[in-house]
Write a structure and sequence with these properties.
The protein has about 425 residues and is an alpha+beta fold. It is built from 13 helices and 22 strands. The protein has a seven-stranded antiparallel beta sheet with strand order 17-16-13-14-15-12-18. It starts with 5 loop residues before the first strand and ends in a 14-residue tail after the last helix.
Length: about 425
């Protein structure tokens, strides 16, 4: 590879660093420079996972792994054939970073600190000779005379290859330049957010976790299960975050004004629950309903659900009959809550939307419209649920984009 090859990586986040390191490893004679608009790099890595950095997920079947992405499922399956969760583990191990798998299959650095991941990237970039240029916002990109011209403030930067990795963009304006190359921009909307329930008294039970619960969005086919956390503003936890990801566009269309139905007993069906409650009534007839909770729910939540069913917590089990019995069944399986808004966390903001996937070859991450232009990470219309999946997509697409294939010479690749 000629030493005159200049590779510009736009964005100093997770995908950007991984792409730059990959590019320099695959093409050691190339000049690789990361251009970051702010004065900080790897900011999202720093705050992710509560400062611990959930680097990936222990899912080693590529087909199953791809199912954790509401957008990009089919495309990422191709990418995972080249670099997947096991590849991530091996990559970090080779560089002296020990990872640890938790019971929920989330994988973190054993140090329990995201700084370990940041130090690894910065060390590798420096070792390989990747340059990092901060406070250099790229405002426009065009192609002329056989090379890319990147505009930053009053400066023009020239490159033979561009890898664009600026992360999720809440507004499309920053991606308008890509339309000139023929790319379609999918309108970004938030993904991975919690549900605000300002009018629901369940908020007084903040801190309670139910694991697992099943949550559905009323009048849709959207549903998700997993741990559910009651917060002072409403509901959160993996079940809610998963639901917000898969329902990102539908919920945005409804202006985040909708209702959810919670099955506090996960997948238990009505006929089975009725039989369970009948047995409880037979064997614990004289016990107070508040003193005998047959489902392992926290006492505060159990009493809340009993009272919501219009049953006194001092009532005996034998007194739970007729309408009260039916009401309790419905509350346990189809508890309804009105959502009026969302809460997103600015530092870990995830979007659904960005560069449309039909314009990118996922075998190479190269633009189908402009040879030499590559994309990686969340700037694409790709996003995963919580649990390390968004970082895995960043590593996979960044690694592939960094290989910088030679489509610019005229050989057009295809996903077919």
């Amino acid at each position: 590879m000629s030493s005159s090859l200049n590779i510009a990586v736009v964005g100093g986040g997770a995908a950007g660093f991984f792409a730059a390191i990959s590019a320099k490893e695959h093409h050691p004679n190339a000049q690789v420079i990361i251009y970051e608009k702010s004065n900080k790099v790897l900011a999202k890595v720093k705050v992710s996972g509560g400062g611990r950095c959930n680097v990936t997920h222990a899912c080693f079947d590529n087909k199953e792994l791809s199912k954790f992405y509401p957008r990009g499922t089919n495309q990422l399956r191709k990418a995972f054939e080249q670099f997947n969760a096991q590849s991530t583990i091996d990559w970090f191990k080779k560089r002296g970073v020990t990872l640890e798998t938790l019971p929920d299959n989330c994988i973190f650095p054993k140090s329990n600190s995201s700084q370990t991941i940041i130090d690894c990237f910065e060390f590798e970039a420096k070792r390989l000779g990747v340059r990092v240029q901060q406070q250099t916002p790229i405002n426009d990109i065009h192609f002329e005379n056989g090379r890319f011209v990147l505009k930053s403030l009053e400066q023009e930067i020239f490159a033979d290859r561009v890898i664009y990795t600026t992360g999720g963009q809440p507004k499309v304006d920053s991606l308008r330049w890509a339309e000139k190359f023929g790319h379609t921009i999918v309108q970004p909307v938030p993904s991975l957010f919690t549900f605000n329930m300002p009018n629901e008294p369940i908020r007084s039970l903040m801190g309670i976790v139910v694991e697992p619960a099943l949550v559905r969005v009323e009048k849709t086919k959207l549903e998700a299960d997993g741990p559910l956390l009651v917060t002072h503003w409403g509901m959160s936890g993996p079940a809610i975050l998963k639901l917000s990801a898969f329902g990102a566009r539908i919920l945005a269309e409804n202006n985040y004004d909708f209702a959810v139905l919670v099955n506090w007993l996960h997948t238990k069906k009505e006929d089975v629950l009725r039989q369970d409650l009948d047995r409880v009534k037979e064997t614990n007839a004289d016990k107070k309903i508040s003193n005998y909770n047959p489902f392992g729910l926290s006492s505060r939540l159990w009493e809340y659900l009993v009272e919501k069913s219009a049953i006194s917590v001092d009532a005996r089990w034998k007194e739970v009959t007729g309408k009260a019995f039916n009401k309790l069944v419905n509350t346990l399986l189809n508890d309804r809550y009105e959502v009026k808004g969302k809460t997103t966390f600015k530092e870990e903001f995830v979007t659904a939307g960005g560069i449309s996937l039909d314009g990118v070859d996922f075998k190479t991450m190269e633009s189908r419209h402009q040879p030499g232009l590559f994309f990686a990470g969340e700037v694409l219309d790709v996003d995963g649920v919580t649990g390390g999946f968004n970082f895995q997509a960043a590593w996979s697409t960044g690694w592939i984009a960094g290989k910088v294939p030679s489509r610019a010479s005229g050989t057009v690749t295809s996903d077919e």
